[in-house]
């Protein structure tokens, strides 16, 4: 067992993109956002129960903001609607868990209620949520679990990579549980920080996957038989065509990647000299002075 | 006889070797002995071949000198001159002592180098064992490339830091009581080296006396017993081995004080330490440092207040202080001696001359530097400013997505978006966690099946890895033990080395490369036969049927194919 004093923080970043979840509700009515949040709550409770010193944080990653569902700033004891408060504490649950669950559900209701529809903001702000998660786990041993629903947003690439390297520097492990499409960025994140990446085949069994694979922390994983690491495709895409290439040309000034050589970099307009093979100059014959 | 260009350093007559009389000659690069009356040398050894020399102990009747070579053989010379045998032998020994170290290093260096490399790099050592010891390739081939690579590295590693001397090294030799009124001193070679580096006088005494007059043990016993080592060094005039050392130390201290401090901004004269009852006869005039008595810096004692006025206690106190100062100065000097031979010469002109401070024209350069440092601040100076080229990005939006391929975006109409959002909001408005019905048991058990070994999620990794030959993924710790893994790694290293030699021969331009290619091919075959096949058989017999060596065999086969192609082309060219 870990020492009694060690505080271990689990930050769960849940992708609550309302557009994706709305579409998901139409595709598969048996697995909706509520079920997903229930599963996350089960895992959060389990984590808190594993060890007295364990801590939990849950961040909802929305299109408009990244919001801490737990711990919440606004929750005050006794503020919740009368019936709910009574019912949640009536079943004799460990008080901490009851409070946690109440806070989470309250915050998520408020978050969804204040969603505004905006056409151009349809991507999940995952990089921002990860950054918040990193900041919250500064003073203690922490790890991040990302539950991803919607697709990757390529525009967040730079921020994402910075977050990944920051996590690696601070020895914070990033795990990923992907519900739908594979995410190259998260695969890289897990590979670099030493976490687990898993794309689950059945969304309805999310709770089981979370408890089996993602509940044990990094120290215990070496003793368990867990899904093996995925082969990560680290190939970069060229800046000109955005094709994946294995061998390319990199501008030494702006570091942009190209698939073909061109004498001028199109990004920073630096000119490059091509080293030509040595030309043998024909020797000039000395002109004999005409006599 | 000796070559005409050889310089003869010492000739000793009446030296017997193997019961024959003869003469011993010491030349510039070798030592030789010829029997009496004959013209040629029967015994000749280069200094480079001699590992060490030994002499017979003093008490023995026969005075001998033995030379031990690197190969292990030894030659003994018996000095038989009735009068001067001992002197002769000692003269020969001293000369050899001076000459041998010069030649020693050259011969051994290569071997030492090789040994060092093998010891430092366990992978290299393993490779050596696998290839050379099992005679797959010869030792010269193995070392052919490596020595040149590493000689560059070695030269840079020579600039290691020298270990300094602890100032407390003498105090650290704490004597233990012997039980019966005696003291045991434990001397390690480190302490001895510190003593020699700090007090070269003692080193000289040691070289003079050991091993002729005294054994090492006796020398050190005398050292510790002598008043030189004792706290209160009152020169009693006893015929002590070390009384000369004491005098030398005093001389050394005087000269050090005479040199003074090289930093012109430090004025030691201003530090005065006067006892209340001492009359300051000199007033406030500064006294040139070399006239001050050596009882402490800056005291105002003039030559007239001599020993007679001081009490015995003052004398011993000042003696201790003097010894402390001397000891510290010697420790510092020993540390700086090797590092600063150049610096000393540069600054010598400045401060040894006691009158230099008076002449304004002769400003010591060090003083200038110190003054400059004190006046100027680097960051307040004008910025020189390196001319930098600013980055001029025309298409900076490329960085927003970075080197990420375009992904197919699902097109969603705005109506879709609105509908989805409303649906979710509706759903979550009445959200209440229902944790007892998160999933059904069938779902849970199917998930568990997928996660168990052999399940859907667990298989992809191992098969993929085996196919690509990735060791770390395919060799699940429970399936293949670590010895097999490490043996496989060694095989890979050895095969890699051989293949590197093989492939570097192409294109085959010279006859040397042709020979090498043929040799390497036979080496590869031998490697495959002696190492690879037995390993594969062992693995198949004992563990499982997976093919661990498939990739290795593939690499070897490619090499064989290349060789075959090259050979047929050569045949066709010849015919």
TrEMBL record, chain A:
Keyword annotations of the record: DNA damage, DNA repair, Metal-binding, Nucleus, Transcription, Transcription regulation, Zinc, Zinc-finger
Classification via InterPro entries: TFIIH_Tfb4/GTF2H3, vWFA_dom_sf
GO MF, one example: zinc ion binding
A GO-annotated cellular component: transcription factor TFIIH core complex
Taxonomy, superkingdom: Eukaryota
Gene3D superfamilies listed in its UniProt record: von Willebrand factor, type A domain (3.40.50.410)
Subcellular location: Nucleus
Pfam families (UniProt xref): Tfb4 (PF03850)
GO annotation terms (biological process): nucleotide-excision repair; regulation of DNA-templated transcription
Chief localization: nucleus
PANTHER family the UniProt entry points to: GENERAL TRANSCRIPTION FACTOR IIH SUBUNIT 3, TRANSCRIPTION INITIATION FACTOR IIH TFIIH , POLYPEPTIDE 3-RELATED
Assembly notes: Part of a TFIID-containing RNA polymerase II pre-initiation complex that is composed of TBP and at least GTF2A1, GTF2A2, GTF2E1, GTF2E2, GTF2F1, GTF2H2, GTF2H3, GTF2H4, GTF2H5, GTF2B, TCEA1, ERCC2, ERCC3, TAF1, TAF2, TAF3, TAF4, TAF5, TAF6, TAF7, TAF8, TAF9, TAF10, TAF11, TAF12 and TAF13. Component of the 7-subunit TFIIH core complex composed of XPB/ERCC3, XPD/ERCC2, GTF2H1, GTF2H2, GTF2H3, GTF2H4 and GTF2H5, which is active in NER.
Family of the protein in this entry: Belongs to the TFB4 family.
Function noted in UniProt: Component of the general transcription and DNA repair factor IIH (TFIIH) core complex, which is involved in general and transcription-coupled nucleotide excision repair (NER) of damaged DNA and, when complexed to CAK, in RNA transcription by RNA polymerase II. In NER, TFIIH acts by opening DNA around the lesion to allow the excision of the damaged oligonucleotide and its replacement by a new DNA fragment. In transcription, TFIIH has an essential role in transcription initiation.
This protein's name: General transcription factor IIH subunit 3
The organism's taxonomic lineage, starting at the top: Eukaryota, Metazoa, Chordata, Craniata, Vertebrata
UniProtKB/TrEMBL annotation, chain B:
InterPro entries: BSD_dom, BSD_dom_sf, PH-like_dom_sf, Tfb1/GTF2H1, TFIIH_BTF_p62_N
Alphabetical UniProt keywords: DNA damage, DNA repair, Nucleus, Repeat, Transcription, Transcription regulation
Domain BSD intervals: 99-154, 179-231
Compartments in which it is found: Nucleus
Similarity-based family: Belongs to the TFB1 family.
Function: Component of the general transcription and DNA repair factor IIH (TFIIH) core complex, which is involved in general and transcription-coupled nucleotide excision repair (NER) of damaged DNA and, when complexed to CAK, in RNA transcription by RNA polymerase II. In NER, TFIIH acts by opening DNA around the lesion to allow the excision of the damaged oligonucleotide and its replacement by a new DNA fragment. In transcription, TFIIH has an essential role in transcription initiation.
PANTHER family assigned to the protein according to its UniProt record, in alphabetical order: TRANSCRIPTION INITIATION FACTOR IIH-RELATED
Name this protein carries in UniProt: General transcription factor IIH subunit 1
Record organism: Scleropages formosus (Asian bonytongue)
């Amino acid at each position: 067992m870990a020492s009694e004093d060690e505080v271990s923080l689990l930050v769960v970043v849940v992708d609550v993109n309302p557009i994706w979840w709305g579409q998901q509700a139409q595709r598969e009515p048996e697995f909706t956002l509520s079920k997903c949040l229930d599963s996350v709550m089960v895992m959060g409770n389990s984590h808190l129960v594993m060890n007295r010193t364990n801590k939990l944080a849950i961040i909802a990653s929305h299109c408009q903001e990244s919001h801490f569902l737990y711990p919440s700033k606004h929750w005050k004891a006794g503020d919740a609607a009368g019936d709910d408060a009574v019912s949640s504490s009536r079943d004799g649950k460990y008080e901490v868990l009851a409070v946690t669950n109440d806070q989470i559900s309250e915050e998520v209701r408020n978050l969804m209620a204040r969603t505004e529809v905006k056409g151009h903001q349809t991507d999940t702000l995952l990089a921002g949520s990860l950054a918040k998660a990193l900041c919250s786990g500064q003073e203690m041993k922490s790890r991040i679990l990302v539950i991803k629903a919607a697709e990757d947003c390529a525009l967040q690439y730079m921020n994402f990579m910075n977050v990944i390297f920051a996590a690696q520097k601070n020895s914070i492990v990033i795990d990923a549980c992907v519900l739908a499409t594979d995410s190259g960025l998260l695969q890289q994140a897990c590979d670099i920080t030493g976490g687990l990446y898993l794309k689950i085949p059945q969304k309805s069994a999310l709770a089981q996957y979370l408890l089996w694979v993602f509940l044990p922390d990094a120290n215990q994983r070496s003793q368990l038989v867990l899904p093996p690491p995925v082969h990560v495709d680290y190939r970069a895409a060229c800046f000109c065509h955005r094709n994946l290439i294995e061998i390319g040309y990199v501008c030494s000034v702006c570091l942009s990647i190209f698939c073909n050589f061109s004498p001028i970099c199109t990004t920073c307009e630096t000119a490059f000299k091509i080293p030509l093979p040595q030309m043998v100059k024909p020797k000039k014959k000395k002109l004999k002075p005409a006599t | 006889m000796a070559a005409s260009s050889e310089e003869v350093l010492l000739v000793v007559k009446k030296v017997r070797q193997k019961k024959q009389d003869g003469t011993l000659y010491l030349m510039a690069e070798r030592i030789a002995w010829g029997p009496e009356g004959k013209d040629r040398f029967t015994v000749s050894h280069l200094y480079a071949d001699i590992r060490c020399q030994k002499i017979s102990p003093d008490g023995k009747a026969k005075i001998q000198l033995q030379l031990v070579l690197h190969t292990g053989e030894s030659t003994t010379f018996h000095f038989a001159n009735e009068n001067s045998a001992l002197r002769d032998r000692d003269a020969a020994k001293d000369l050899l002592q001076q000459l041998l170290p010069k030649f020693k290093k050259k011969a051994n260096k290569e071997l030492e180098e090789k040994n060092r490399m093998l010891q430092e790099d366990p992978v290299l050592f393993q490779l050596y064992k696998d290839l050379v010891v099992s005679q797959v390739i010869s030792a010269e081939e193995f070392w052919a490339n490596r020595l040149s690579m590493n000689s560059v590295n070695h030269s840079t590693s020579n600039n290691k830091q020298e270990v300094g001397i602890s100032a407390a090294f003498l105090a650290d030799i704490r004597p233990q009581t012997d039980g019966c009124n005696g003291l045991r001193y434990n001397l390690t070679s480190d302490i001895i080296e510190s003593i020699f580096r700090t007090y070269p006088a003692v080193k000289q005494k040691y070289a003079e006396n050991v091993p002729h007059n005294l054994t090492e043990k006796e020398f050190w016993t005398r050292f510790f017993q002598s008043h030189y080592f004792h706290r209160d060094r009152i020169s009693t005039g006893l015929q002590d081995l070390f009384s000369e050392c004491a005098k030398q130390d005093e001389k050394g201290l005087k000269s050090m004080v005479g040199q003074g401090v090289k930093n012109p901004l430090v004025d030691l004269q201003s530090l005065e330490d006067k006892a209340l009852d001492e009359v300051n006869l000199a007033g406030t005039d500064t006294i040139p440092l070399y006239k001050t008595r050596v009882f402490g810096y800056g005291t105002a004692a003039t030559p007239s207040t001599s020993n007679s006025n001081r009490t015995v206690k003052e004398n011993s106190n000042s003696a201790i202080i003097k010894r402390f100062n001397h000891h510290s100065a010697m420790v510092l000097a020993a540390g700086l001696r090797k590092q600063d031979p150049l610096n000393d010469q540069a600054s010598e002109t400045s401060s040894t001359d006691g009158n230099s401070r008076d002449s304004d024209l002769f400003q010591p350069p060090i003083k200038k530097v110190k003054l400059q440092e004190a006046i100027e601040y680097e960051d307040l100076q004008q910025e020189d400013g390196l001319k930098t080229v600013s980055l001029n990005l025309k298409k900076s939006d490329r960085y927003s997505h970075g080197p990420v391929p375009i992904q197919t975006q699902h097109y969603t109409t705005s109506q879709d978006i609105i509908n989805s959002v409303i649906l979710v909001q509706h759903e979550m408005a009445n959200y209440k966690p229902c944790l007892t019905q998160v999933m059904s048991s069938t779902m849970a058990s199917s998930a568990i099946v997928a996660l168990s070994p052999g399940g859907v999620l667990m298989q992809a990794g191992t098969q993929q890895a085996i196919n690509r030959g990735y060791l770390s993924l395919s060799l699940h710790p429970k399936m293949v033990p670590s010895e097999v893994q490490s043996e496989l790694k060694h095989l890979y290293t050895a095969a890699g080395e051989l293949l590197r030699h093989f492939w570097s021969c192409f294109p085959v331009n010279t006859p040397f490369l042709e020979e090498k290619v043929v040799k390497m091919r036979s080496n590869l075959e031998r490697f495959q036969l002696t190492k690879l096949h037995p390993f594969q058989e062992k693995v198949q017999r004992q563990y499982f049927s997976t093919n661990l060596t498939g990739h290795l065999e593939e690499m070897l086969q490619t090499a064989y194919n290349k060789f075959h192609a090259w050979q047929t082309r050569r045949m066709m060219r010849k015919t």
